[in-house]
Amino acid sequence: MSSQGIRGPPYEFIHGNNKQILQMQKEAYSKPMALTHDIFPRVLPHVYSYIKKYGKNYLSWNGVQAQLVITDPELQGDSLVTSESEKRARQRKLANYAFHGESLKNMIPAIIASVETMLEKWKGKEGKEMEVFQEFRLLTSEMISRTAFSSSYLEGEKIFDMLMKLSAITGRNMYKAKILFIGKFWEPADEIESDKLAKMIHDSVMKIVKQKEEKVMTREADNFGRDFLGLLLNAYHDPNEKNRLSIQYVIGKTKQEQRDNIRYIALHHDPDLWGDDVHLFKPERFAEGIAKATYNNAAAFLPFGLGPPSCVGMSFSITKTKIPLSMILQRYTFTLSPSYVHAPLPNLSLKPQHGLHLLFHSLD
């Protein structure tokens, strides 16, 4: 790697760079930051530090595993537009169907119903402080549960809650070195808990799958439903074997669509790509398209990935963001509460470390 100009932090026996990364994170997360969107140094202090020291592409060590980190937009684009097997591409195409056109349109009433439930709880709280991160977490849980599991949405909310717990465990163990031979004799508590949660999620989804299949077999229903899981099940039972999805793919997509990541934060906060105003909220920068906004580096803006690995739930995610915002803005104006503390924290996706406290004022 060094002969190709790739450098990075030195390897430390067993731990790699993990001890250094955890120390950087501990220091960064111990104090809040100014009210600005210049969040990169706080959210990913190690990536920020290594880029400054070693360049936009560098080699780091997660335990004994080497990782090539690429934040150059040209190389990033090349690394993302990868080939797929014919079967994988066909499965993605079928999964995409669940989130487009008529399928997506059929999910809108469930999204609206979820938002109305939340807004009903907000009545009488005008002018009072509300912690909305938790409100939106519950809203997201209900929207995904209703659209993915329909009449079984209460069971879906339990699955979503287990996924959040699994994400938290994954996040806090991301930079802990794993020593393979010790794992044969002793399992950490988090690993035991994550295995337990993964099995419970699998069993819960399979329970709903079997309920749907039983209703079709007994002619109580003539299809598996128009929710996300039902559409994937229709593909699983497709009489044409070439169009069929595996049951593990069905379960995997149900889990995958509820995860986000922050892999591209370095690209999204790079002044070389966006200009010196990269940290300002300027939606008008996109008025003439992404290429113009990024000085002809379209691969610098990857909110849903790029190429074959891109998120199949992109349209659904945008819809489930637009609808709640439009319904809220029809009823309220809001401002930050004086008690708000600006401290973005990564946990697979970003979250406010001390909550998001807002003051809402009714437009009526």
Automatic annotation (TrEMBL):
Record Pfam families = p450 (PF00067)
Q: Where in the cell does this protein reside? A: Membrane
Membrane topology annotation: Single-pass membrane protein
Superkingdom is: Eukaryota
Does the keyword Oxidoreductase belong to this entry? yes
User: What keywords appear on the UniProt entry?
Assistant: Heme, Iron, Membrane, Metal-binding, Monooxygenase, Oxidoreductase, Transmembrane, Transmembrane helix
The protein's required cofactor(s) are namely: heme
Q: Which family does the record claim for this protein?
A: Belongs to the cytochrome P450 family.
UniProt name for this protein:
Cytochrome P450 CYP749A22-like
Species name: Gossypium arboreum (Tree cotton)
